[in-house]
Design goal:
Shape: elongated
Distance between the termini: 36 Å
Order of helices and strands: HHHHHHH
Number of strands: 0
Radius of gyration: 16 Å
Strand content: under 5%
Largest sheet: none
Structural class: mainly alpha
Number of helices: 7
Helix content: over 70%
């Protein structure tokens, strides 16, 4: 499943139109259409949060949406990136793990 196909599925389950999602995050309907057809990358983390709120997603579905957004960009999920940026101690811990794994 792709980010776009999941977004479409979740939107349709809530019986929302593309324009409803577009208005909720401040973009055009064409932009949402392009995302759902995987012609554009997923939106920013802030807009993803707004989408999750508009669609009233569970924690699990939000995580799935964020994971697919990261995969579509070839990155780590945006919520994880935000957490890492805000928590230098976690960054340091990850570096220690990486260092240990390289030297095993």
């Amino acid at each position: 499943m792709t980010f776009g196909s999941l977004l479409r599925q979740l939107r349709e389950e809530k019986r929302l139109r593309q324009v409803d999602v577009a208005n909720a995050i401040g973009v055009s309907t064409v932009y949402i259409c392009d995302i759902e057809k995987d012609r554009r990358n997923p939106p920013s983390y802030k807009k993803l949060q707004l989408i999750a709120g508009k669609l009233e997603l569970t924690e699990e579905k939000t995580a799935e949406l964020f994971d697919l957004a990261g995969q579509a960009r070839g990155e780590v999920a945006p919520d994880i990136i935000e957490y890492l940026v805000a928590n230098p101690a976690v960054q340091a811990s990850i570096r220690q793990i990486m260092f240990r794994e390289r030297n095993v």
